[in-house]
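Lay summary. Proteins are chains of building blocks that fold into shapes, and those shapes determine what they do. In this project we predict the shape from the chain. Here is one chain we studied, written as its sequence of building blocks.
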Amino acid sequence: MLSCRSRGSTPTRVDFTSMAATMMANLRTPPKHQNQFHLLVREEQMIDDLFELIGGQRTVSAATEAFYRRVLADDTLRPFFATTDMAQLLARQRMFLSMLLGGKTVYTGQDIAAAHARARGKGLNDGHFDRFLKHFRESLSEVGVEPDKIQRVTKVLESRRSAVLNP
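And here is the predicted shape, written in a compact code that computers can read:
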């Protein structure tokens, strides 16, 4: 059990043991209400574990930090983050990427469509998504991920384009 608290709220108890057991059961028999995104992630995890292939949590963390340095230096992308709590975003993005690439991390943030709703309202489009992918590829390269693995990670990220832009 872990107690979590948002600013000014009552502590919430989170039972990660129970949550992990439920997730493992869902991997064996997905519930009828489980969305397509979760099924895609589960399928990719069965194919291979990119998370470990690229170097695990250390690599994901380093690549995520390098990625946001690049994004914030990009005049086209920086405006999307003008009011963003970057520390929180970095933490959530590390969790999301770890889970997406097959790590054992439990992502507890919003689903991908909801997480990008505000950015879509500010005009997020395919050109921006392409720039994000470019920066992430460069970040993976910067932290030493091999080109063939960068291509595989990019393919996974590319498969989320419509969820980000056109939910």
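What the prediction tells us: The chain has two domains: 1-34, 48-165.
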